[in-house]
Amino acid sequence: MDYQFYDTYSNTKKLFTPLDPSNVRMYVCGPTVYDYAHVGNARPVVIFDVVYRMLQLKYGQDHVCYVRNITDVDDKIIEASNSLNEDISTLTERTTKYFHSDAEYVGALKPNFEPKATDHIAEMINIIEKLIEKDHAYEAKGNVLFAVNTFKQYGKLSGKTLEDLIAGSRVEVVDYKKNPADFILWKPAKENEPGWDSPWGKGRPGWHIECSAMSEKYLGQTFDIHGGGQDLTFPHHENEIAQSECCNDKKFANFWMHNGFLSIEGEKMSKSLGNFITINELKDKFQGEVIRFNMLLTHYRQPLNWTEKSLQESKKILDKWYKLLGTAEQPLASAKELISEIMLKALADDVNTPQAIAELHQLYKAAIGGNQKALDTFYNSCKFLGLFNSTSHEWSTRQNKAVKIDENLINELILKRNTARSGKDFPEADRIRDELLNMGVILEDKDNQTTWKLK
Ligand code: AMP
Ligand code: ZN
Q: Which atom of ligand 1 is nearest to the CA of 231?
């Protein structure tokens, strides 16, 4: 079955033909590790996991190489390390573990390589040297900058012209830039900041060069698919293209795939807006498959509005589906031939997961009548989408654990909140109320008494 994917670069849905079917290559920008990831960050993890599974199915498990990097050097990391008074590598190792646990929770397969930026400084320096040699980059005050006007196609991916960028002040204007849109490849390390020796002094790489270096190392100068969230088209991916194509004189990625935003109350979920829910905080309440299923209900390029209500609805569906599994009279067969063709057809059309799930509902209906073949197809199709990682028994018992409440803890938190309120520390009181809410506990204040109930 042929796959069609929407390519952001050409703004069209195109037939996917890999450069080498025996080695299909995909790179996805991974997290910057300094804290817990939020649910928005899980969207590319889940969606590119589905793409990875699709590629493995078509080309064979050993013929797909999926790389997702870890950005472990960045301003935000330095800031967090200073404010927590924690050594940078301890912080990044700790938060990388959080990310791994989150990715596993949402049922994502491990990528083939997960390179860390700090392990690839030499490769980055190498690309920067080549860019300087070819007059695409220049040194200024210990910085090395990419000269955007040396790359004719600059702006093609995000559909921006240089004039738009400058007029819209999307670029930082500093006196050492030849053009305000020129971007950093290397910058000097301030005192107490991580830094590496380089031909331009002790410094550290810009964010964009990291992905150019790591994708080339593991996937070659040209590869099949580059993915990430829609917010990365400009400047991150635009700059990756400029660096890599100018360095190698070759096309960088053949397909650019971008997921839409996950938003909450109409706004993009992000750390900077403070409107985020961490993946971690959902773990007490929902099994990871609920998060995954809920994400797949929306097509990956569409905006996804995150609500607790839709999670509850997804949970109900999965409860029902798992219950059906529990009624199977004979062991369920497991074979890729049993994956629904109709579902695969939906996925082959630019990863149409909502359509794929509509087919799962049909299969469920057929299976519930006791048709073993339909049940096997239903089971294998769900498994292919990364569902049914538990047995029905595990599912129901873990669910019970998830709603199990610790009354002592609740009372202790209520007491703490009351103390905070009488001391007029309202932010702390609100924080505790939200913490309880995350545990599924609703507080009611009446006549100087606080009572609680479960959501
Ligand atoms: P970051 O750690 O911020 O670099 O983000 C890691 C990945 O999550 C990138 O691919 C981002 O594009 C993606 N991402 C961040 N916020 C959202 C969001 N609200 N919705 C969807 N994807 C997001
Ligand atoms: Zn990247």
A: 12
